[in-house]
Amino acid sequence: MNISYTESKQLKTKLSEENLGFGKNTTDYMFIMDYNDKQGWYDPKIVPYSPIPLDPSTCVLHYGQGVFEGLKAYKSKDGRILLFRPDENIKRLNRSCDRTCIPALDEADVLEAIKKIVILEKDWIPTAEGTSLYIRPFIIATDPFLGVHPSHTYMFMIILGPVGNYYPTGLNPVKIFVEDEYVRAVAGGMGTSKTMGNYAASLKAQDKAEKAGCIQVLWLDGVHRKYVEEVGSMNVFFKIDGKVITPALSGSILPGITRVSSMAILRNRGYEVEERPLSIDEIINAYEKGLLEESFGTGTAAVISPIGELLYQGKNYVINNSEIGTITSMLYDTLTGIQFGRLEDKFGWTYEVK
Ligand code: COI
User: Fold this and answer.
1) Nearest C-alpha to atom 3 of ligand 1 is from which residue?
2) Would you kindly state where each structural domain of the chain is located, as residue ranges?
3) 4-163: what CATH class?
4) Whose alpha carbon is nearest atom 6 of ligand 1?
5) CATH number corresponding to 174-339
6) Could you tell me which of 136, 181, 237, 239 has the fewest CB atoms within 10 Å of its CB?
7) How confident is the model at residue 129, as a pLDDT?
8) How confident is the model at residue 256 (pLDDT cuts 50, 70, 90)?
């Protein structure tokens, strides 16, 4: 792939790495590649980061035909630039494309685009503890057309930004609202894909959760309002009576890359991990019997985030005294150790960008 490059005349001032937060800052450049039915994906380019002009009738603005991914670049102590399982993100991007009638991308081209822009922006990779460069590939439908129909033109873009903790509370256990009114996804819908609409569907409940003093929502299944699914921006795990349980991919849960990597680490460390339907009643019963030992969420942005409290039907359930649990911290240390190149990567997950 021949990626053209336009140099920026004015570079941004880099911010202090202390309080980066998540999603507030972007780097100097962005990658763009267009699609039309005649040429396929064409004209890959890296250009200065800037707003993009869109016709007000552009499809994505009305019907949300758009998908995205999230991955991170990490700088190791010895200066290597590492990605974590980028092939998995790229495969999932194409699965999301398939679900939303967006033409597939060539996986090798996407990886090359990510590598090129990460190398160009390598000075933006922060090095303070817990920080990284977030990579956001996304695709939007660009036909200026108000009929409901798959677009004939698309734009694939990659933007980047230095990030710290996703939650303002850092690694402190978070309080989660168990949502039994609104629904995010059902099997057959788009919950397994990373489509823009999934996140729009989550906002009403997110707002409700915040008003109740919680940071995010734990979704229950849309049919029975009984089985736990996932938290707003992360998959979820519970340790009950020595066993680690995560909801099975039911057709409405995002197949998280951190989720599947966490299961592999836990199994490798000898923990029993069950992937199965898990009802909120089972969690509450375990709590009442003193058997709910730990809970945490997993995600690229959220990394491994301890869950210290559930709010369900007006009642608070405090888990592990709202302290980070043993397996949660082991998992955090192991996963970030691999991602930042501090620990040996026996799984072959890290990908060095040269
Ligand atoms: C990620 O973890 O990268 C995500 O995409 C979650 C998010 C919507 C911030």
Assistant:
1) 70
2) 4-163, 174-339
3) alpha beta
4) 233
5) 3.20.10.10
6) 181
7) 87
8) very high
